[in-house]
Amino acid sequence: MKRFLTIALSVVFTLLILSPTAWAIPAFARKHGFNCNMCHVAFPKLNDFGQRFRDNGYQIPGQAGLEKTVFENGIPFALRTTTGYSIYGNGQGTASVFHLYGLDLLAAGVLHKDISFLFVYTPRIDEPAADFTGPGNGHNPAQLAAIESANVVFSNLVPDKLNLRIGRFEPGFQLLSSKRLYSILAPFEIYGFAGSRNSYDFSANQIGIEATGRFNPGLKYAVGYINGSGANPDNNRFNDLYFALSKTFGKGEGQSAGQRVGVFGYLGWQPTDFGGTDISPVGDVNGRNNKTFHRLGVDVSLNWKTFNLQAMAFRGTDNKAFNEIDPTQNYSFWGGAVELDYAALPNNRLVGSLMYNWVRPPSNDGLKRINSFSALARYYLGSWSAVNIALHAEFTHRELGTILPFKENLFTLLLDFDF
Fold it and tell me: Is the pTM of this model over 0.70?
């Protein structure tokens, strides 16, 4: 036990900043007089109605034009924060700490018939709010201020078949959303895997334009044209392209009913040389010698009663210019995740989840091989109309590398609050 759970400060901090932002907007429940479970299996995970509500620009399907706008009803505003106590170890000792895992401020609503918006802001939180490395020095806050999302949705340009989302948003190629995981400490590892030199983050929100739509029975698509650099400076003269196509069998969206299968693909460019001339007053430079990378994967979501099994895997290939280990070969890797969720008790007040993550880099980069196992339980408090406080217990075991892998364990008890 002495050797279980020691903290390497940088590792814990990395885990924290990799833990995904998850979105739930209980103000919608207040606006419509719904229970939170109208849109969520249990926050933050969407159910089938919630998925349709989101796809329809935060309008109840079939009620477009009858919704009160934010000018008539006020902007639906929400916040989410998570605080808890964590214990970490990597075989060399143990340590424990209180954490504040961040704060999200969210607003979304209808501006006009078939025109809506989403805005998510994460304010700056200085240390030691989120870790125990000491007081912040003004240059290294625990949570940097950022506009996580800012987009406008034009719904039903062609009824059901064409919607446009413009701004910064969660791209539709994430058929398994990295923003709506129950897990606080275990992200989809393959989403954040960047290979050798390529800095692309598959889980990051992107800036651009996306078209989505659905065709009966159960066929959905998404295609996008985005900057590919997330919140970082756009020093790439090329932009990236992606698609996603999914099919649901049976009634539902594959979230909590029906069975869904899907495929997705991504084609991107990244500069390999940042030695260009300054192109902005703040010193951004025009990246040069752009090379390609691509991702191609599959997704499945299976439902039985209150069980949901989700799985995702994709293969990534980066141009050899990104391969620092062997510049004569493209850098190819693959990985994925399997997650089993179960909901019990009235209003799904008790949720359990198991998840396995894996990443398989090239054989000559075995130090980046990942195996991760996670288990969690959540119990929701609150009244019938607002099940918005979760008591959360989670354990993750992670192994990095092949020969004598580095092993780490993280356990947390926390309170997840959404208002």
Answer: yes
